[in-house]
Amino acid sequence: MPSITFDFFGTQVRVHVPTVDDALHLCRYYRDYRIADHSCVSPMFEVRLLAADGISFIEALLSRSILKSIWLRRYGGEWELYETFSHKPSKVTPIPPLLLRQDASFSLTHASAFGVTEATGTNRAVVVRGDSGSGKSTILMRAMEAGASFISDDMTWVRCGHVHPFTRPIGIRSGLARSLDTSVLKCCQRHGVRLETNGELTYMVHPRDLGLLVLDHAVAPTATVQLMRSDTIKLIEDPELPGRFTLMWNPRTDGERGWDELAKALKTRGITP
Q1: Residue 153 pLDDT class (50, 70, 90 cuts)
Q2: In 3D, which of 57, 17, 13 has the Cα closest to residue 35?
């Protein structure tokens, strides 16, 4: 089986996959964390991805009927079945395996994050939470179009109260790409991997291929935004917790206006992209 080794924030994992196509996909997806020469590395974890009949694991993920299994081995231990599923996995992916560390130092939140600057000149993070389809990537792309730096999309890792940059491809729906600067759509079409999500074309594009500024160090959060779908746009700040916002909106129709409202609220707190 082909294998690739990655280093995520000092945690090494070697991943064994059924096909070369799987290996190429992971190398592209986690390209900033790949260890080119892994022959001398003794990883903390090993992961084995398997699909029925030995087909590509990535191909099997597109099917709701093909059985998939994930096996895990800790350093010096035996292989253990981590999960078996046909449709959707019930456990958090072990790539990266940060939640499996014995020190439990990392936490994971379903959120995007971008870097901003406070009035003091200090770099901070704005963390944007919400369900799938609530517009996290929309706010992220609007913020970066305004000059913010990229931290993470959809998966945000936190350690000791600091948000860590996690560079993997951003999921940009075709409608969002068309609403942004024309250069974004061109980058999506040139560099993006095309997927069908909920009946809409989505480009998976690495932030560096978009020419975005990527933050290179962990920062503390200065504000959080909870996104909620609504037919009426409204931004609310918690009066008891300054810097904690709720944005009610329709991300498909309120993209630019929603970001403008949030940007104004952040600016009143001395926070700028």
Answers
A1: very high
A2: 13
| CA pair distance 271, 134, nearest whole angstrom | 23
Give me the helices (H) in the chain, please: 20-29, 57-61, 136-145, 174-179, 182-191, 255-268
**What pLDDT, on a 0 to 100 scale, did the predictor assign at position 199?**
77
pLDDT digit string, tens, across residues 188-229: 999 999 988 777 899 999 999 998 899 999 999 999 999 999
In the chain, % of residues over pLDDT 90:
84
DSSP string for 65-134: SS-EEEEEEETTS--EEEEEESSS-SS--SSS-GGG-TT--EEEESEEEEEEE-TTS-EEEEEEE--TTS
Encoded tokens for 21: 């196509």
Is the per-residue pLDDT at 176 higher than 80?
Answer: yes
Query: What angle, rounded to 10 degrees, do the helices at 255-268 and 136-145 form?
Result: 70
Cα-Cα-Cα-Cα dihedral of 166, 171, 172, 173, to 10°?
-160
Compute how many other C-beta atoms are within 10 angstroms of the C-beta atom of residue 194.
11
CA dihedral 187, 190, 194, 199 (to 10 degrees): 60
Does residue 6 carry a pLDDT above 90? yes
Top CATH class, 108-268:
alpha beta
Going from N- to C-terminal start, the domains of the chain cover 3-98, 108-268
Neighbours of 80 (CB within 10 A): 9
Strand partners, 126: 114, 223
